[in-house]
Automatic annotation (TrEMBL):
Keywords: Acyltransferase, Repeat, Transferase
Residues that coordinate or bind acetyl-CoA 2: 217-219, 224-230, 257-262
Binding-site residues for acetyl-CoA 1, renumbered to this chain: L70, V71, V72
Name under which the protein is recorded: Mycothiol acetyltransferase
Organism, as annotated: Streptacidiphilus jiangxiensis
Length: 282
């Protein structure tokens, strides 16, 4: 396990991730994981796998919740490196493992280690004109995010909106500021809904790689059922389609959230691919 990495090793791992993303057509490590790699977060463990010549052939990351992601260089697959790296990852304490895209090889490896499917995260996409924007609930106004002013209010509403979803609801100021520092961050696409000057909802959009993304939509529990979430979703889709010129928009939603799935399906989204999480049996 790597306790500390220098800049050269982080760049070597980043290059491996880039080769895998190009070969697989998707990222092997999540955005959160890639941010943790670049920033050197202390609550994340890193494992590297090298051949007899010292060449990097695999990388794994274990976060503070003992969830892991791993990748093997596309040119070095089918040599047993993935199996060996997964064994080391589990022996290092990982309790869950992501298989992004639900790749059959990853699913087979999880079965070999007797891991059980514990979560299914669906990527949905829609292509076409944005839907009409319905009226906001009475008394609600809309503006865009102001860096340096809105962070704490956003974190409060995000935590309340996602109290049932610890992965999103537990975001810290550092999590938010790391994303504000990313090249794709655009406050003009980060919409805030307020009632009497108090933040009650938001739609944070993302544009990267020729695709738009419903990055996260959240509504305060006090506004649940008011239609605010539907209006915010439409506002963001129209921004991505008209202001950013992006015809295709993606989002992620858990398979065990049928209410959200119905909302997005009615907005024209369909399943594009699925990320699977496997867990160690209890």
């Amino acid at each position: 396990m790597v306790e500390r990495m220098d800049t050269a090793e982080r760049e070597e791992i980043a290059a491996l991730l880039a080769r895998a993303a190009e070969g697989d057509g998707r990222q092997a490590v999540s955005e959160q994981g890639r941010l943790a790699l670049r920033s050197g977060r202390e609550d994340v463990a890193h494992l590297t796998s090298r051949d007899e010549h010292g060449a990097l052939v695999g990388y794994a990351q274990i976060d503070a919740e003992w969830s892991a992601e791993l990748v093997v260089d596309p040119a070095r697959r089918r040599e047993g490196h993935g199996r060996a790296l997964l064994r080391r990852t589990l022996n290092s304490g990982a309790r869950r493992l992501w298989a992004h895209g639900g790749h059959p090889a990853a699913t087979h490896l999880a079965a070999e280690f007797r891991l059980e499917l514990v979560r299914e995260l669906r990527q949905l996409r829609r292509t076409g004109p944005a839907p009409a924007v319905p009226a906001l609930p009475d008394g609600v106004t809309l503006r865009t995010f102001e860096p340096g002013r809105d962070e704490e209010a956003w974190l409060k509403v995000n935590a309340a909106a996602f109290a049932h979803h610890p992965e999103q609801g537990s975001w810290t100021r550092r999590d938010l500021e790391e994303r504000e520092a990313e090249s794709w961050f655009d406050p003009a696409g980060f919409f805030l809904a307020e009632r009497d000057g108090e933040l009650v909802g938001f739609h944070w959009t993302k544009a990267e790689g020729g695709l738009g993304e419903v990055y996260v939509v959240g509504v305060s529990p006090t506004e649940q059922g008011s239609g605010l979430g539907k209006a915010l979703t439409a506002v963001g889709l129209r921004h991505l389609g008209e202001a950013r010129g992006l015809a295709t928009v993606l989002l992620y939603v858990d398979a065990d959230n049928p209410a959200a799935l119905r909302v997005y399906e009615r907005a024209g989204f369909t399943v594009h691919e699925v990320d699977l999480m496997f867990g160690v049996p209890s």
